[in-house]
Design a protein that fits this description.
With 189 residues, the protein is mainly alpha-helical. Helices cover 75% and strands 7% of the residues. It contains seven helices and three strands, in the order H-E-H-H-E-E-H-H-H-H. It has a three-stranded antiparallel sheet with strand order 1-3-2. The protein is elongated, with a radius of gyration of 23 Å. The chain starts with a helix and ends with a helix. The relative contact order is 0.17.
């Protein structure tokens, strides 16, 4: 793990934190996290583990990544505001995203700063056969998290972008009779 890896992890955390207040969602803002994770995958993804326990471990972490990404996406609001598609991550969505991203960052820091022996003992207990199993599993987890979130938000982006923009004047005219009726009911004794 180097400064670039830490920067990528922090950048991915900031991605969702910026969306808590609501921002415009564009194709670029939707796809740049995928580019970062794919770059990391090409940089770190080594051999795919062949032992059953290694494959099972990688599959479990992939499922965790999938669950975190889907949870984050489902707790993120995508809506139309005028002619823009907006995205707003709820605090729970941000929490899920931060858990996934920071867990991998913390693992890397621990592995490099005195935790290698403990990770080795854990690998023995889990019957993992290769050092590459950890990096492959963690990258697979990140890919599943980012891709699942991106696919769900991308689908919701397309739906929101296709919705017609209601002109303000037409909306005001349609609302006027309802508002008048409500006012008349309120003024009755």
């Amino acid at each position: 793990m180097n400064w670039t890896d830490g920067g990528i992890s922090l950048g991915l955390v900031l991605l969702v934190l910026r969306q808590v207040r609501g921002r415009e969602l564009t194709v670029i803002s939707l796809l740049w996290p995928v580019g970062l994770v794919l770059w990391a995958a090409f940089d770190y993804l080594g051999t795919i583990p062949g032992e059953t326990s290694d494959v099972l471990f990688a599959s479990v972490l992939a499922a965790v990544g999938l669950a975190l990404g889907l949870g984050c996406a489902l707790l993120t609001r995508v809506f139309r505001e005028g002619d823009k598609v907006m995205v707003e991550a709820r605090p729970a969505a941000a929490a899920l995203w931060i858990i996934g991203m920071s867990s991998r960052l913390v693992f890397g820091i621990v592995a490099l700063h005195g935790g290698a022996e403990a990770i080795g003992r854990l690998s023995e207990r889990l019957d993992l056969h290769s050092v590459a199993t950890w990096s492959t599993s963690l990258i697979t987890m990140a890919l599943c998290e980012v891709l699942s979130r991106t696919l769900v938000l991308g689908h919701r982006y397309r739906r929101a972008a296709r919705r017609p923009v209601a002109p303000a004047a037409a909306a005001d005219k349609a609302a006027a009779p309802r508002m008048a009726a409500a006012a008349a009911e309120d003024s009755r004794p």
